[in-house]
Amino acid sequence: MTSLFTTDPAVLVLEDGTRHVGRAYGARGTTLGEVVFATGMTGYQETLTDPSYAGQIVLQTAPHIGNTGMNQEDPESRRIWVSGYIVRDPSRVVSNWRAEESLDEALERDGIVGISGIDTRAVTRHIRSAGSMRGGIFSGDSASIEPDEQLRIVRDAPQMAGLNLSAEVSVPVAQVTPAEGERIGNLAVLDLGVKQATVDNLAARGFEVHVLPQSVTIDELRAIDPVAVFYSNGPGDPAASDAHVELLRGVLDERLPFFGICFGNQLLGRALGLGTYKLPFGHRGINQPVLDKSTGRVEITAHNHGFAVDAPVEGEFESPAGYGRIEVSHVGLNDRVVEGLRALDLPAFSVQYHPEAAAGPHDANYLFDRFRDMVLASLAGRENRDQVEQGDTATTGEND
To answer: Is residue 269 part of a domain?
Structure first.
């Protein structure tokens, strides 16, 4: 736990030339990414290990970070995914009985370059006004690079818009989690950056969860004989994921029940023929109010998205891609952003946030039950159709 007791310099450089000088935190070196802020007061371990944050330098708006340390029970994936980390006041001690290492030790282990000791409120207000932008953290020896050269390095980094990051975060081979309780059937989960809490919630509903690589084909998906398909959260621009959109259209064409969250919501929108766009500074945190239009209930939800679906928030409309009637099912109350879609003529729906809420409130956990009920209804309908067809065949045979 050396980083808190050294005076290695560090500087945060934004692409508009803004500079903030602080102290090195975590690994030393240079890192680049889109600078975004997350408003959660707690749950930093889940945030850091959420694959949706790949390619992003995450700023914590909560001023005091690290007091609960890190453990092996709470990670949402196999590693820390953020490109960089910004905090104001890192805890000098770890004071939680579950902690197995300090936060800065975990950052160093995974090679995550961070910065501490800067005015994170000022950076947050700047991003809220100017929008999310590329940035770089230069710490240790890298902090002494000439300011003009640091700015050039930042401006040469790729933009998040147009970036496909799915291959970086997805599993290389399929992974299976057995169903808990009464088994419903195989669930195909396209791993675009799935979190472990999502897998656990799906398995708890009776699904045998097959987490599949993002490169899977429709034939490979069919081979597991799924009762339904799920698209996970993930990083990147949905406009750069044409292959995933085509795969989803194959799923919709076969009328397989579908549920998507976060990135999966954006890809359902695209599959239905809708557009997507980049938000000025996105939604990231565990305190975002969303209206469920079907119940009139306001839920406090966990978000992490910088893109959104472009669709009318009131009334039904026809899918531009020919999939029947669609409605926006959930709306963000801060800015009226589309937070959910529901197909009215197909067994498919999605939300733009995290119903597994790790970390976060559990107001939206019912969506996993809604998905299970939709799948069970689809299976019952399929069984009834099979019985009718068998009856028709038997009657035809008798008449012959």
So the answer is: yes
Q: Is 263 annotated as contributing to ligand binding?
A: yes
Its domain, for residue 345, covers: 166-379
Q: Which of 37, 183, 23 is nearest to 117 (CA)?
A: 23
Same domain (yes/no): 116, 173: no
Q: Establish whether 162 is an annotated binding residue.
A: no
If asked whether residues 220 and 101 sit together in one domain, one would say no
Q: Which of 155, 188, 216 is the last residue of a domain?
A: 155
Q: Is residue 298, in this structure, part of any structural domain at all? A: yes
pLDDT on residue 360: 76
Q: What is the CATH number of the domain that holds 42?
A: 3.50.30.20
Q: Residue 263's closest CA among 243, 279, 247, 241?
A: 241
* 96 annotated ligand-binding residue: no
261 and 332 belong to one structural domain: yes
- Judge whether 306 is annotated as a binding position: yes
Hey, which residues are catalytic here?
262, 354, 356
Give the DSSP per-residue string, 244-288: HHHHHHHHHHTT--EEEETHHHHHHHHHTT-EEEEEEEEEEEEEE
129 is in an annotated binding site: no
Query: CB-based burial of residue 302 (10 Å sphere; 0-12 exposed, 13-18 middle, 19+ buried)?
Result: buried
The tokens describing 240, both together, are 């750069």
Backbone angles phi, psi at 251, to 5 degrees: -65, -45
Split the chain (400 residues) into runs of 10 and give each run's mean pLDDT.
65 98 97 94 90 95 94 90 97 92 95 97 96 96 97 96 93 97 97 95 98 97 98 96 98 97 98 96 91 95 94 97 98 96 98 86 92 96 71 57
Q: What is the pTM of this model?
A: 0.91
Q: How many domains does the chain have?
A: 2
